[in-house]
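Record pair follows.
FIRST:
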Amino acid sequence: MYVLNFYSPVFIDQLKRGRKTATIRLGDKSAKYRKGQVVLVTVGFQHSPREKIFEAVIDQVDVKRVAELSPRDIEHDNPEFRRLDETIHFLEQIYGRSVARDDTVTIVRFSAVVERPTDIADRLRPEAPSQN
C-alpha cells in the first residue's frame, strides 16, 4: 500500500474535517498515484513516527504546470489559500528550493474511506424502506 504523507501537523484537523481533499506535489507523480488506488493518509516527518489519519481512495490525478493551477486546485490542497503565490511560497518551504511557474506539479485528489457512512448505514437498517 502506498502512503500519502503530510509533514505539517497543521493538516491533521483539515484532513479529519474533510477540508483538505487534495495535495499538490512537485514533479510528475502519476506513476506513483493512480485513480482508484487506496492509500494510507499519514502525518509526520521522515524517519519519525507518523500518525495514521485514514485510508483514502485516489479520485483523480492531474499533472500540470504550476501556472495552470486553478483556484479550486489551490483551495482543495489548502483551504486557507486562495492565490497562486501562496501555494508557490508553501511549496518552496516544503521542498526547500525555489518553485517556478513552469515547474510540473501533480494534483492528487482523494476521498477518505469510512467504515460505514451514515447514509448507507441508514439505508441498510432492516426497518428502512426498500427500493425496487
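SECOND:
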Amino acid sequence: MARKTSPPDDPARAPGFSRRTFLKTAGAGAAVSTVVGAGSACTAKPTVIGPGPVPLKLRVNGATQTVTVEPRVTLLNALRNHLDLTGAKEVCNRGGCGACTVLLDGDPVNACMLLAADAEGHEITTVEGLGTPEKMSPLQEAFVEADALQCGFCTPGFVVSGTALLAKNADPSLDEIKDGLAGNLCRCGTYSRIFEAVQKTAGRG
C-alpha cells in the first residue's frame, strides 16, 4: 500500500513546525486581536472612588440622603449606622438569612451583599418606608393579627419580601408564598403564621 503524503505546501509538515508552535502562535494572535478590539471599544475610563470616605447620594424611602462612607461599606451598614434605619437586621452578614432584606427598585435584595456605592441611582425602600406603628401597611397589620412573630428579629425582612411578592402577585398560592419567601429564615419557626399573614393580605386585595 502506498504511503499517503501531505501536500508540499502543508504548514503542518514544514521543518521546525510542531503542534506546540501552532498553538502558541494562534494564542498570541487571538490575544492581540482581543486587546486591540477592547481598546477601540472601551475609550472611557471607569470611575474610581476612594479609598477614603466619599459622599454618596442614596434615594431611601422617597427622600434623597447623603452619606459619607468608604467604598467598601455595604448598603446595610450605611442604612443602619449612617441613616439610623435599623429595621434591616445584620444577622448572618452572608446573604443567607434575609434579615437585612430591602427593596431595590421594587425587588428584594440582601443589603449586606450590596455596596452602598452600587445603590446610587436606585430607589431603596426599607421596612420603615412601608408603614409606621401609627399607620401600618396591610401586610404589617396582618402580621399582628396572625401573631406571625416571636422574637421579631426576622420580621422586617419577611415583611419586605412579602410586600415585594404581593406587588407582583396579588393572589399567590401557598406554594407561591413559600417560594417568594424562600430567602428568609425564621429561627423561631413561625412559618405557618407568616404564610397566614401573607394570605390574609392577599384576601383583602
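COMMENT: The CA atoms of residues 87 and 127 lie 6 Å apart.
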